[in-house]
Structure formats: structure tokens, C-alpha cells
Amino acid sequence: MTFAEAWAAASGVEGWLTEAQARRLFAVAGAVPAGGRIVEIGSFRGRSAIVLARGARPGVEVVCIDPHVGSDRGPREIAARPALGDEDITAFRGNLERAGVSERVRHVRDFSALALQTFDGPVDLLYVDGAHRFGPARTDLVRWGARVPPGGRMLVHDAFSSVGVTLALLTSVAPSRSWRYLGRDGSLVAYVRERSLAPGRELAELGWFASNLVRKGAIAAGLRDGPWPH
Asked: Which helix (H) or strand (E) holds 165?
């Protein structure tokens, strides 16, 4: 399976993952050894789930966690709307089926904090793209991140784009000496679980974050057209 094939299967699915971000996801998914586990928090309609499942080796478990209640669907969409949630899960299942990965993905329809209570074992690759508010985002990073063993990876979407996600990172992961920052593709940041001798390297991204805030403010005020930064 090549990245081009995976992207061809995923790119038509509604979502905000860019091609460059998908390429990184595909690569890190393919690095998880057989018998390992990938966990995605926040699946929406399956764009990133398809990339992860297409990139994963045989024998790697791919778990996608999303309550699909119509909340936290995208920019400025926070409140629950159950009818939209039902549409999303129908689209999610259909998209995975068309991409040929429905048998590779175990979907957990629950909030990530609740799913964690019944979830055992390590997570070799954690992809966080759930609720972007500070509290839920920080909980995902801290509690789910604790499941990532040494050498494992954590990727976070909408970092230095979303205020909530950025504050969650800066107050939990960035100061930690157990996560080493690897860089970003747009708003997708990558970490490896290993001792960091220079925590806080992410602070160099604050200028980019500020430019994103200005851009979002202008879009929200109707002073410029999109796209919304991702």
C-alpha cells in the first residue's frame, strides 16, 4: 500500500487533514510493529482513520474513538446536535467501507475520557483530534498520553491553531521532559515518548500561532475569506 493510494481513498472524505499531514500520519502508522496498537481520538467522517488504517501493517490494531453526538465537529461547532451525529457516523461507516478498511478499524462510540476507563494496554501511536476545548484536550493529552510507552508517538491536530489545544499542549506536554518535540506539518505536531533534554522547543511556534489567531479573527469578522487555519 502506497501513500498515494491511501490519499486517493481518503482525500474525498470531508475533513480538515491536509495532504502533508496525511503523509506524516501514514508514515508513523506504518512504523508501528505488528501486534501494536494505534488509537485515534476524534474521527468525524473517517478521513484520517482511512489514512491510519491504510498505513498500518497487518496485525496492528486500529481503534477510533468518537461519540458522534454532533458536538466538536469543526470550527465553532461545539454544541451537541444528535441528528448531525447520526449523519456523521453513517458517513464514517460508509467511507471506511468504500475505502476497504472497515474490517481494520475498531470504532468505540464514546467520549474519550469514558473510553479510557475500559481500555487496557499500551498505545504505540496516539493521534489526538478530539474536542478542542482546553479541558477535554488536556485530559486527552495527559491521560491517553500516559498510555504511550517509551519510543511511542503522539500526534496532535490543530496545535498552534486552536486556542484550547495550544494551551493544553503548553501546560502539559511542552514542559514535560518525557516528550520530545519532532516538529509539525501545518497544525499537526508530532512527539516521541523519550527523554527530552530541551523541553519547550514548541515555544518557537508561538509566532505562527499568533498569525493564525489574527487570521481566524479576520475570517470570523467577515474581513477576509477562508480557509480556516488547520
From this structure: helix 163-172
Distances (CA, A) of 116 to 53, 62, 69, 110: 21, 15, 18, 10
In tens, the pLDDT along 109-167 reads 999 999 999 899 999 999 999 999 999 999 999 999 999 999 999 999 999 999 999 99
Mean local confidence (pLDDT), 16-24: 97
Return the CATH architecture of domain 3-203: 3-Layer(aba) Sandwich (3.40)
- Percent of the chain having pLDDT more than 90? 77
Ordered by start, the domain boundaries in the chain are: 3-203
* Cα distance between residue 107 and residue 98, in whole Å: 16
Instruction: Decide if pLDDT at 77 tops 70.
Output: no
Show Cβ contacts of residue 69 under 8 Å, excluding neighbours closer than 6 positions.
Answer: 80, 81, 82, 85
By DSSP bridging, strand 37-41 and strand 125-128 are parallel
What per-residue confidence (pLDDT) applies to 144?
Answer: 98
Q: Which residues are 192's β-sheet partners? A: 153, 180
* Helix axes of 19-30 and 47-55: crossing angle, nearest 10 degrees: 40
